[in-house]
Specification:
Elements: H1 2-14, E1 38-45, E2 60-64, E3 67-69, E4 73-75, E5 82-89, H2 98-112, E6 119-125, E7 129-136, H3 139-146, H4 157-168, E8 174-181, H5 192-201, E9 204-210, H6 212-215, H7 219-234, E10 239-241, H8 249-260, E11 264-268, E12 278-285, E13 291-294, E14 297-299
Parallel strand pairs: 5-6, 5-8, 8-9, 9-10
Antiparallel strand pairs: 1-11, 1-13, 2-3, 2-12, 4-11, 6-7, 12-14
Helix pairs in contact: 2-3, 2-8, 4-5
Amino acid sequence: MIARAWILAFLLQLAPVQAPEPELAPPDQRLSLDVHIVNVLFTVSDSKGRFVKSLPKERFRVFEDDRQQPITQFSNDTDLPLTVALMIDTSGSVSNKLVFERQAAIEFLKSTMRPGKDKSLLFTFDTHVDLLQDFTDDVGAISRAAEKIRSGGSTVLFEAVSTASQKLANQTGRHIIILISDGNDTFSRKSIDDALRIAQQSDTAIYCVSTNSILKNSYQETDKGNKTLRRLAEETGGRIFLPMTTDELPASFKKIDEELRSQYALSFHPGAKQDGAFHKIRIETNSRQLHVKSRNGYFAVKPN
C-alpha cells in the first residue's frame, strides 16, 4: 500500500499543471478574428444580351482596385435561395397608379418565390417607412398585407433603402431589393451615399422600377428621379427598368426574374485594408464576346 501511494504521488508530480481558463469577455467586448470576405453576385451576357449560364470558375478573374485577387468561393448554381424586400413608394404623387403597381408586384412574387426556399417581405414608404409583412415564404401573406397599402405624404426613399438593407443583412440567400418608385427623395435624413453604403455592406442588389413615365412626371422630375434610381441599381449590381405605361410593368418584372435566375456568385479575401474606404471591384472573363455585370465596389468594414 505504501509503495502504491508513493508511485501515485510521484506520477501526480509529473503531470502538467493546467492554468485556470480565463473568463471570457461579454460577446460585445471580444475582438473579432473572422477573416473578412467580399461576396459578389454577377451576371454574364453575350453580344445579343442573352444571359450565359453554367460557366466554370476558370473563366473568371476578379480585381480589387485593379489588383487581381484569388477567387476563394464560386458558384454558378442559379437555384440559390432568394431573400427579397419588395419596396413600394406610396407618397402622394403615385396614388392614381398605386393599385396596378401593387398588383404587378404581387404577381411577380407569385411567379418568382418558391415556398420553403425563398423569402420575401413588404415595405412601403412615404413620410415614414412601414414594414407591412415580415419575412415569409407565403406570397398570400404578402398579398393580404398589400391590401393595406394607402398613399400620401412625402418621400423618404434613402431611409427606406437603408432600412430594408439592414433588415436583409443577417438573412441567408441572395439579398435583393425590388424598388418601385419615381426616385425623388424629399424628406430623408439620410443621403444616397448613406443608402448605398448600407446596401453594399449588406451585399444587397437593388432592382429599380421607375414610375416616372407612368405618372407622366415633368422632364425635370423624371430626369432627376431616374438618375437616382440608376445609381442605386448600378452601384449595387442591380438594374433599372423604365416602363412607359402600366401595361409594361409585368414585362419589367419578368426580366428581373430572368436575371435573378441567371446569377453567379463569387467570394474573395480583400487585399485592401479594412479602413472603411470604398474599393472598386471588376470581374472579367476570358472572352471579349461576354459582358459581366456586377456591383462596382464595396466599403471595407473597419474592425471593432
